[in-house]
Structures are given as C-alpha cells and as structure tokens.
Specification:
Thiamine biosynthesis protein ThiS, Ubiquitin-like (UB roll), 5 strands, five-stranded mixed β-sheet, Thi_S, 65 residues
C-alpha cells in the first residue's frame, strides 16, 4: 500500500494528511499538499486519508531575505 510522495514511494496509505505531515515533522501551517493533482485545503488535512496509489506533492514556503 504505497503512496508516491514527491517522486518517492512511501508506505503511508491509511494515514490522514495531518497525521502524515506530523509524522514527517512538516510545517503544517506553511505547506501546500497536492493529492493526485488537486490541492488539499488545510481545513481538510484531518479528514482526507491517503490511499494506495495516491501521488502527493509537498510544497513548503521558506521565508528569507
């Protein structure tokens, strides 16, 4: 039950997007999650479950100057 995350296969199917991000210690407030070509809204992170075969792209924003 693999999910492709930024081009790499990971065994994370069955987790919610929120649980997945927390496990990765990802900056939940500063990240965009695309699932199968569609943006997952932050309000849905705890409702959307990753499924085998999903393609996930994570885009995080980093401030700087």
């Amino acid at each position: 039950m693999m999910v492709t995350v930024n081009g790499q296969s990971e065994d994370v199917a069955g987790q919610t997007v929120l649980d997945f991000l927390k496990a990765r210690k990802a900056p939940v407030e500063n990240i965009v999650v695309e699932r199968n070509g569609d943006i997952v809204h932050k309000a849905e992170f705890d409702k959307v479950t990753l499924e085998s075969g999903d393609k996930i792209e994570l885009i995080s924003f980093v401030g700087g100057g």
